[in-house]
Design brief:
Elements (H helix, E strand, L loop, with lengths): L4 E4 L11 H16 L7 E4 L1 H9 L8 H16 L12 E7 L10 E4 L3 H11 L2 H18 L13 H12 L10 H19 L7 H15 L3 H9 L8 E7 L10 E6 L11 E6 L5 H4 L5 E2 L3 H4 L1 H18 L3 E8 L2 E9 L4 H13 L5 H7 L12 E2 L1 H6 L2 E4 L1 E4 L2 E7 L2 H9 L4 E5 L7 H6 L2 E4 L7 H9 L2 E4 L5 E3 L4 E4 L2 E4 L3 E5 L4 E4 L4 E2 L5 H13 L3 E5 L3 H9 L5 E5 L9 H22 L4 H7 L4 H32 L3 E5 L13 H11 L3 H11 L11 H6 L1 H20 L5 E6 L5 H21 L10 E6 L2 H5 L1 H4 L5 E4 L1 H9 L7 H9 L16 H15 L4 E4 L7 H9 L4 E4 L4 H14 L1
The structure holds adenosine-5'-diphosphate and magnesium ion (2 copies).
Length: about 900
């Protein structure tokens, strides 16, 4: 191991912003700011490598560490002119965690370390401010007690022992706020805090500053593996980090009186992205007071009135930091006796709307270029912008309960729960809930993820609830101060109204208004900036983006979102609608008989077949019923396709022939079978027997896909006739049409050859009947590649295919051997064990299934260099899979309508990254 400790000060700084992996984000940026000449209290950073060592070596440190820390402490004493443990002039420090990626509130910080019964008196004398000295000491006792000596509340309903003591004392002293407590009150508080530590921890608070320091360092390192840190990393998919760094930094004091304060700010509005300085501060307060919601902070603009010089300095630093980092920053500052210090800067977390707006505006401001702007926005995050908002008409009617701060935008409706655990349970049972808390803490993360939205009674725009919700893109209303929450009775009261757990409320995170009851939601639109950013992504991307859509409605949404065609229309859904299911069931009931007759009599044509069976009434009926069902379905299917072609306005449409096994169209329970029998005028036994005869042990590998069209060619014929008939009609109405007929589940080239011959024959017949030619309606016939055998014989398959579309859902199922219906039970464990990095049904397994895909592309192109290649599995809208598709050179990805913008952005990014 190299250097374990890095120093930062005005005079000398070892690290810089590029060293985040080693120094953590906080440490690297403290070093960078020091290097830029921004006022930062000096300190030093113990590396993440030491944390890695600590975990691997049974909670011990590298041999040299104690010495290195002692040496840096000396340097810190020199830089500050104070001495650690000195009574006359004590050096106090903060001990702060900070990993490579910021994990807000996940690991604990200790302030005012170095205070003891002796040094506190020294600090009081030196500052001439006894109240301040004891205020600092009681804070240290609380933080140290919580973090190092394990006095944290154990369960959600438990109270923090320190908070209880503080509240009791405030009651005794008739103090409203903690700032109302006098020096003597605080001395009393210190005594009570020390007593509770000794009682609960079984040992006294350490009076040796060096012991305090090492206790704190150890607590930070071991906090890396505390349950809430682990949970945070899981939720945010943070893997492969060594650990956290520890920052030891000279204290500056915002709690020394009226010329002092502390605050947090964003260089732009993190909710909307507007280019304005945005933040909150508290006078006479320290560190966490602002985020913890102890007192309600003031908006940063009022600092301009209270301390104009400081405000001007902050504005200058804001400009300097943005220009330097070329991105929106989230900063912490403290004012000590009229002197400003910066304590942190990092890239600010922002809503999707803010991410888009800042990216676009920073291009307009000349700060970044278009490529960078496209790369700035996380494709997964823009999902937020595509989610429904409240219908304004419904919202206008809804009864208002109260108003809080608009902490994280969007609309959310659900029933009230009062604990994270309850939210998780309800969500697991499929219920939509709103988590209502006085304030949230990192322990609530699981419940926040599970809830539709979060409502808090206390805390500002930078409170835990607000920051975390924005990061998650979850609707949040914070600091609704009129709310009085009664956890014990499972209810809250606001304006005299009682709302109980389980009752519905709605939150508008953009206005802060809380409503009683449900509110209807509506679909979003692409806003100006968002549209612009996506156009920039389009400029760079080479991968096409299509959509999976089965209806004109979905098609129209996707086209509005920028889809360049349909990559998959599933025709089976169409057979379930309205009366069609009756026709289709008739067809299913007769199909097997017709097939047998066809083979027995060696007659393919149904009319001829019917004639040949004349003396067998049951046979004639079966053929007639089959024929009639097909005739009924044909115009309905044609109508469906006409709607889709019209909505596409000339864009291509890949339409897949029938895929699921026939028994899926019949009910499997007795009651359902009886109903169907009644509607169809047959006995329930007929239906039951049919279901039994069609039964399959493993339907996913059964009689489905092209295997249906091969055994029952009339079904494929009807579908191709409907597709081409619709194409001709829409073409004649003046709208160009590009149908692509897709044969599913091909494994052998001969399967495709049979279905292709059929498709071409029917298509040409329909064209001729309409007086049209293939040059007017240039239809294609291709196949899905979803059976591994097809992927490895893609060179043969390509002789019969104009295009391939990778059906990666089935390809994953068959390639990995994971049943889509059953793998859910163990795949989560597989991912936790690290066997697969991600669920391969969500994120393409590039090493395995991806290899099949890449191989099929190569083989396919060898046979047919101009073969069209696309993907239509769920992976087509997942950013890392989209990047893979770009790499192997697919022509397009296809995904659900709401994922189209996500895929456009991801494809643009993939092209830029090259
Ligand atoms: P987090 O990662 O949870 O934000 P921090 O380490 O940034 O934790 O610290 C918590 C709070 O304490 C912040 O408000 C920070 O500005 C403040 N703080 C940390 N170190 C010092 C210091 N040396 N002097 C004054 N305030 C500090
Ligand atoms: Mg911080
Ligand atoms: Mg499939």
């Amino acid at each position: 191991m190299g250097q374990n400790v890095f120093f930062f000060s005005k005079e000398r700084t070892d690290g810089n912003a590029t060293m985040k992996e080693l120094l953590g984000g906080k440490g690297a940026n403290l070093a960078e700011m020091s290097g830029l000449g921004i006022p930062v209290p000096p300190g030093f950073t113990i590396t993440t490598e030491v944390c890695g060592y600590y975990q691997d070596h049974d909670s011990t440190y590298p041999d040299s560490l104690r010495e290195e820390v002692a040496g840096h402490l000396k340097k810190l004493e020199a830089a500050t002119g104070k001495a650690f443990g000195s009574i006359e002039n004590p050096l106090l420090v903060s001990v702060r965690s900070g990993a490579f990626v910021s994990m807000p509130g996940m690991m604990d910080t200790i302030l005012n370390l170095g205070l003891t019964d002796e040094t506190v008196a020294g600090l009081a004398a030196k500052s001439g401010n006894e109240r301040f000295a004891y205020d600092s000491y009681r804070r240290l006792l609380q933080m140290y007690g919580d973090v190092v000596m394990d006095l944290k509340p154990e369960t959600e309903t438990d109270h923090d022992p320190f908070e209880e003591i503080l509240e009791a004392l405030k009651d005794e002293k008739n103090a409203n706020l903690d700032t109302d407590l006098s020096a003597d009150d605080l001395k009393e508080l210190v005594a009570r805090f020390k007593a509770v530590i000794e009682k609960k921890a079984g040992r006294p608070f350490p009076q040796d500053p060096t012991e305090q320091l090492w206790g704190a360092i150890e607590a930070v390192f071991s906090s890396w593996n505390n349950p809430r840190a682990i949970k945070y990393r899981q939720i945010n998919d943070i893997k492969g980090l060594l650990g956290t760094a520890v920052n030891v930094q000279a204290m500056v004091f915002g709690n020394m009186g009226d010329g002092c304060g502390t605050g947090v700010a964003f260089t732009r509005d993190p909710a909307t992205g507007e280019n304005r300085f945005y933040g909150e501060y508290l006078m006479n307060a320290q560190g966490e007071d602002v985020v913890a919601g102890i007192r309600t902070p003031l908006p940063i603009s009022t600092l301009n009135d209270e301390m104009p010089a400081i405000y001007a300095e902050l504005i200058a630093i804001r400009a300097k930091l943005e220009a330097h980092y070329r991105d929106m920053q989230d900063i912490e500052f403290t004012i000590e006796d009229g002197v400003l210090y910066m304590l942190q800067t990092r890239t600010g977390k922002r809503t999707a709307a803010a991410a888009v707006r800042t990216a676009v505006e920073m291009v307009e401001e000349g700060m970044i270029d278009r490529k960078e702007a496209v790369l700035r926005v996380d494709p997964d995050q823009i999902d937020q912008l595509l989610h429904p908002m409240f219908d304004p008409a419904a919202e206008a009617q809804a009864p208002v309960l109260t108003k809080g701060l608009p902490a994280s935008p969007g609309g959310a409706t659900g029933s009230v729960v009062f604990s994270a655990a309850a939210a998780e349970t309800a969500a697991a049972a499929g219920r939509k809930v709103i988590l209502v808390r006085t304030e949230t803490s990192p322990e609530d993360i699981g419940g926040m993820v599970a809830a539709q939205g979060i409502l808090t009674a206390r805390g500002g725009m930078t409170s835990h609830a607000a920051v975390v919700a924005r990061g998650m893109g979850k609707c949040c209303v914070a600091g609704a101060g009129e709310l009085s929450i009664d956890y014990a009775n499972g209810q809250f009261i606001v304006g005299g109204k009682i709302v109980k757990a389980g009752e519905a409320i709605s939150l508008n995170g953009s206005t802060g208004i809380v409503y009683k009851g449900d509110i209807r939601t509506i679909d979003p639109e692409l806003s100006g900036d968002f549209g612009m950013l996506l156009e920039w992504a389009d400029e760079f991307r080479t991968l096409g983006v299509r959509t999976n859509a089965d209806t004109p409605h979905d098609t129209a949404i996707a086209v509005k979102f920028g889809a360049e065609g349909i990559g998959l229309t599933r025709t089976e859904h169409m057979f379930f609608e309205g009366d069609r299911i009756v026709s289709f069931r008739r067809l299913v009931l007769a199909a097997e008989t017709v097939k047998r007759l066809r083979v027995d009599k060696e007659i393919d044509d149904l009319t001829e077949l019917q004639k040949a069976c004349e003396d067998d009434k049951a046979a004639v009926d079966a053929v007639r019923q089959y024929k009639q069902a097909l005739q009924e379905l044909l115009p309905l299917q044609r109508g469906d396709f006409e709607g889709i072609f019209k909505a596409l306005k000339g864009l291509p449409a890949t339409i897949r022939l029938l895929d699921p096994p026939l028994h899926e169209f019949l009910p499997h329970d007795a009651e359902g079978q009886k109903e169907v029998a009644d509607v169809m005028g047959v006995s329930a036994d007929v239906i039951r027997e049919k279901v039994e005869s069609l039964h399959e042990f493993n339907p996913m590998l059964g009689h489905r896909g092209c295997r249906l069209g091969i055994i029952y060619p009339e079904i494929s014929e009807m579908q191709v006739r409907a597709i081409m008939g619709a194409a001709c009609n829409v073409h004649k109405s003046g709208i160009p049409v590009k149908p692509e007929i897709m044969i599913p589940l091909v494994g052998h080239v001969k399967e495709l050859a049979l279905q292709r011959e059929l498709s071409v024959r029917i298509a040409d017949e329909v064209l001729a009947a309409n007086g049209l030619t293939k040059s007017e309606i240039p239809y294609l016939v291709g196949t899905m590649i979803e059976v591994p055998r097809a992927a490895v014989t893609a060179d043969e398959i390509a002789t019969e295919a104009d295009f391939f579309s990778f059906g990666t859902n089935d390809l994953t199922q068959m390639g990995c051997g994971f049943s889509r219906d059953d793998a859910g039970k163990f795949l989560k464990d597989y991912v936790e064990l690290g066997i697969y990095d991600k669920d391969p049904f969500q994120v393409l397994d590039q090493a395995g299934v991806g290899k099949l895909l890449a191989m099929a592309c190569e083989l396919g192109r060898k046979t047919r260099p101009d073969i069209k290649l696309g993907i239509c599995g769920e992976h087509g809208g997942e950013p890392s899979s989209v990047a893979f598709c770009h790499k192997v050179g697919l022509n397009y990805v296809s995904c659900s309508p709401y994922r189209v913008p996500v895929a456009r952005l991801a494809a643009g990014q993939a092209a830029i990254r090259g």
